[in-house]
Amino acid sequence: MRKFIVLLLMGFFLIQPVSATEFTAPAAPESAQKFMPSEQETFADGLWYIIKSAVSALQPGLADASGICLSLIAIVLLVSILNSFSESSAGVLRLVAAIVIGLLLLEPANSLISLGTNAVIELSEYGKLMIPVMTAAVAAQGGATTSAALYTGTIFFITLLTAFITRFIIPALYIYLCLCVANCALEQDMLKQVRDFVKWLMTWSLKWVLYIFTGYISITGVISGTVDASALKAAKIGISGAVPVVGSILSDAAETILVSAGVMKNAAGVYGIFAVLAICVVPFVQIGAHYLLLKLTSAVSGVFGHKPSAELIQDFSTGMGFALAMTGTACMLLLISLVCYMKMMG
Predict the structure, then answer these.
(1) d(CA 200, CA 129)
(2) Spans of all domains in the chain
(3) Which of 67, 169, 294, 341 could form a disulfide with 134 if both were Cys (CB 3.0 to 4.6 A apart)?
């Protein structure tokens, strides 16, 4: 039904010539409004404003996260000391350590996963408002066929990814974290194998959704052009390192954004780009900061020699990596789609 309405709109605009600049992007969600730059900003300044706002919002939670990480290091050190005095109680100490570490990490992990999930849902809802506007704008310039194909694929993948994340990835992520705690407490091969299988399944699923989406975008023919090789390489390295699990796949789409950098400075869809970034930047930065802190805590804990506890902290870091990946995937999918539309508008 939605597709039928959009096609009718495109037909109307083809009959009555309308400039693409006359189309107005839907307003960003209320939660993202305070991170939106003013209309007078250039694209680079607006991007910097969003990043600064996100970093400022990160500071209060960073202190709590640092306190938790210090507590984790203290627990691992205490367990290592007790374990050195009585090796016969190693099993009990491992069980207690797993329970305490799990209790410390499950609550903040749940908050961060919920934050990422809400961002994915908001991105999906905003995309369903923004994409028809961009489709009509392209159709008004005579690109009805290409815009309709891109609209169909984008809406399909946004809906698919949102349903897939909320109904499969999130439950699987909670199962994964519970299996990590159980494996640390009991240290059984079966639990470890099931944990590794759930991890592989989440990784494989997210990657294939992106493979299919980027393949569809390539088939539509909107990814084309040339870009400075050094800039492209820098962007690919940055994206690949910033997003766990799917960073290497997202980095392959960096050329789409760089090729259209000139368009992004002038196109009406720049508001949509800012809105998408404002929606996902705070969850992405907060989850990313916790991900890095847990990575560091796991490395420091490993020095004390209590391997099961250090591995459990590393497993929670991996879980935050999946939360980061799902948020980054939803954000990049919508960004690539918007930039493709803007490139078609020229």
Answers:
(1) 34
(2) 33-345
(3) 341
